[in-house]
Amino acid sequence: MTETQVEKLKLMVIDDEPDNLDLLYRTFRRDFQVYKANHALSALEILDKEGEMAVIISDQRMPEMNGTEFLSHTVERFPDTIRILLTGFTDVEDLVDAINSGQVFKYITKPWNPERLKVIVDQATDTYRLVKKRTQELRRSLRRESLFNAVTTAIRESVDYNSMLQKIAVTVGQAFEATCCLLRPIEGDRLTGDRFSYQDPKSSLACIDFDPSFLIEKVLETRHYQLIENTYNNQPCSQLIVPISYQQHLLAVLAIYQWGRNASWQNEDIQLITGVAEQAALALSQVKLYQSLQEKQEQIRAELEVARQIQNNLLRQTLPEIKGAKLQACCYPAREVGGDFFEVFVHPKGDLWLAVGDVSGKGVPAALFMASAISVLRRELSQETPAEPNVVMHNLNNALCNDLIGNNCFITVVLACYTPTSKELVYANAGHIYPMLWSHQSTVVEKPNYLKVRGIPLGILPQWQAQSGKLVLASGDTLLLASDGITEATVSNKLFKAEKAEGSRSMLNQEGLWQLLQEELKPLSLNNLLARIQEDNHIQEDDQTILSLEVL
In whole angstroms, how far apart are CA 158 and each of 14, 152, 445? Predict the structure, then answer.
């Protein structure tokens, strides 16, 4: 069959008059594949056998079924066909019926002018080609949109990277009616051992019957799709291998097999598959990145959990039993690790050292300086005869100052030395909130005594200088050291039994902390106190540490 014959459009002529039918046939036989019928029923049989015609020319007056009725039978089955009606009379109602029900392109009165008819048929074929072109473009667009929607839905329903690969293989395999579809992931330009496949349940062949190795190597080398058509078991077989790549990175290869089908891959199909591959590549790259971030986050969480445990172990897990005194301490970081710390150290000579500190910032950097501060502090307190608290603070600053200044950090810390035998308390304060001292022996509720001797935080200046404060405690006195994570917590006024403005929230401050202390049941429990604050302060924005010394 020649190329000219292949390109000929189909044209059908129907007329019950043999002379007219023969004339129509001879008029168009050179330019069309012409099918002729002498009545409507015969024409319908030809359509059943030959399929869609580009143009149908039908006489109106025919036995059994007129032209209008016949053409109306073709509208639903062949909507793109161009219909021309030949009529020997000009009845308006029949013509309107022909145009409406038969969707007639033109009607021509008999006897017709052959040249005029040829012009009209040329117009009809141009219209047919345009309609077919637009119809095909619309079908391609709808098919592309449908396939893209199917792939997008499959991707969205995937719970992880592997399930997404499997859904892509199944969706593409079903959409293109493949015998089987195989998807192989690639890492570092090498195939992984994973295989994700779709198998046509009606086919007797499986993916293992096909070997795509050679074509996959070609794809890895060229980064371009590969197509081969041959035979397998005496049946035509087509293999199409498409790369799935994003920003020059090859993520996977998609192998599609069609066995037992005579139709070869069309450019339209190949372009559609490559478009799907581009869409899948974008989704896969995003999921892969997300999965990688999740793995890194999980690794970071695991490392932070270890760091949290290490930091927690740096703090005293049990507090010493001191004759004539009771100790309590709590420390809750805002994140996995934090910059708050406390220290309780009993010197062999009997003195009790207490400290609460707060490194600026949060998280890992603050935790590292917190660990350094505890280490240096314990070294200073372990001396045979520890220095005065203000001197210990001076030494802490000397040891940590360069690193603190270099990292734009500082530490606030209050350090106190209590001698049980004399009940003397000596303290130094480096920019920390004031310690609170009050007596349970007092019969009148009074404000606490704020210990206000204080210097600048550590890490501000190369040399730290400040005096120590001194006082003597009495039985019933309670010393409270806290971090600003407690006093700066935002709480609602309903937390206090004494009513304030309804529904408002404000910073707790030391005055609010003092009021809560007055409302606490005796004996004092720091755990209960912090639980009340944290229950009302839904988001803990800063580390919270508190330590108390009660003189019995």
Answer: 57, 10, 65
- Could you give the angle at which helices 67-75 and 92-101 cross, rounded to 10 degrees? 20
Token pair listed for 315: 């703090």
Rounded-to-integer distance, Cα 318 and Cα 314, Å: 11
| For range 269-294, the mean pLDDT | 82
- In tens, the pLDDT along 18-35 reads 999 999 999 999 999 999
244 strand-pairing partners: 252
Half-sphere exposure for 204 (CA within 13 Å, toward CB): 4
Evaluate whether 169 touches 155 at the Cβ level (below 8 Å): no
Query: Rounded distance, CA 341 to CA 372, Å?
Result: 11
Query: Residue 233: pLDDT band by 50, 70, 90 thresholds?
Result: confident
Task: Please give the helix or strand (H or E) that residue 180 lies within, else none.
Answer: strand 180-187
- Is pTM beyond 0.90? Reply is no
Length of the chain: 552
d(CA 328, CA 417): 16
Residues 6 or more apart whose CB falls under 8 angstroms from that of 96 comprise none
Nearest Cα to 549, choosing from 474, 477, 479? 479
In the sheet that holds 9-14, the strands lie side by side as 32-37, 9-14, 55-59, 82-87, 104-109
* DSSP single-letter state for residue 468: P
H or E, element range at 235: strand 235-246
In which band, very low, low, confident or very high, does the pLDDT at 3 lie, cut at 50, 70 and 90?
A: very low
Q: How confident is the model at residue 97 (pLDDT cuts 50, 70, 90)?
A: low
Tokens of 477: 């006195």
Q: Contact, 383 vs 351, CB < 8 A?
A: no
Whose structure tokens read 């007055």?
518
- The span from the CA of 68 to the CA of 110, in Å, is 16
pLDDT higher than 70, residue 46: yes
Residue ranges in 205-362 assigned as alpha helix (H): 213-222, 267-314
